[in-house]
Amino acid sequence: MVERKGLLVGVVALAVIVVLVLTVVLSYNSLISKDQNVNNKWSNIEVEIQRQVELVPQLLQQENVSMYFEQGLLENITSLRTQWLNTMADRSVNEQVNFSTEFMVQMGAFMSVVESYPAIQSTDTIRDIIVSLEGTQNRIAAARIFYNDAVNEYNTAILSFPNNMLAGTFGFEQASYFQQGQ
């Protein structure tokens, strides 16, 4: 009888350990999956911002385009382009989110100037670059929505029980939302 009781306690203890290990493994894998989804969505934004960063100099290289822009705006865009290239090297998502927000504000001002001067759009090359910039801005807006959805899902997961107990242990931290015009 004592032997059976000891065996039963051993089986129950083993079952509890298996359940705990399974919970940890499944929670960890879920957090990894959500983290990778956030990274993937951010990569989509990076691609579009990089495209936008590369299109601006092409537009400004066109004859007489720069005379329509305030010098400060052009300097800001040039400076932000350099910052973008630096954040790409550092791979700091928080810095990239901050940069991206500022760059999008400056690009909004840039596109407002373009829309105010039809003469800027007088050549096919310039018009094509402007259309590409507008399309890129639209893709960034859509990608931002998908990124923020992934961030919301990830942040919710690391703040929810039992993941919240594991998140800190395994170094999972909340991701930053991409907000326009912070």
Low-confidence stretches: none
Shape: rod-shaped
Number of strands: 0
Estimated share of beta-strand residues: under 5%
C-alpha end-to-end distance: 70 Å
List the helices and strands in order: HHHHH
Structural category is: mainly alpha
Q: How would you briefly describe this protein structure?
A:
With 182 residues, the chain is an all-alpha fold. It has helices at residues 2-60, 71-90, 93-116, 124-159, 163-169. Helix 1 (2-60) packs antiparallel against helix 2, helix 1 packs antiparallel against helix 4 and helix 2 runs antiparallel to helix 3.
Characterise this structure.
The protein is mostly helical. The protein has one domain. It is built from five helices and no strands. Helix 1 packs antiparallel against helix 2 (71-90). The longest helix is centred in the first third of the chain and has 59 residues, at 2-60. It starts with a helix and ends in a 13-residue tail after the last helix. 23% of the residues are buried.
